[in-house]
Specification:
Order of helices and strands: HHHHH
Oligomer: single chain
Shape: globular
Number of domains: 1
Largest sheet: none
Distance between the termini: 57 Å
Number of strands: 0
Structural class: mainly alpha
Radius of gyration: 17 Å
Strand content: under 5%
Helix content: over 70%
Amino acid sequence: MLSERHAAMLDFERSWWNNDEPREQVIRARFQCSPDEYHAELTTVLDDPAAMDHDPLVVRRLKRLRLRARKLRHDGAAVASSGGGEGHHA
């Protein structure tokens, strides 16, 4: 079963852009933690099967975004370790 806090996090993710206040400010006020702490906790929530029961659309969207970010980091690290390809001759 999903905790009230974790359900509130998913509910926030569904509609945070409707707030007039900056996202980071709302996170600090509503969840009493830093945005980094919030995102770390949200990552664990996304892996909880109860999260999918609560809001499958939001969970799938956030997992897609998480996967895309990981891929970009991985691809960026691969380019950086290969020397970037510009001006590098064998």
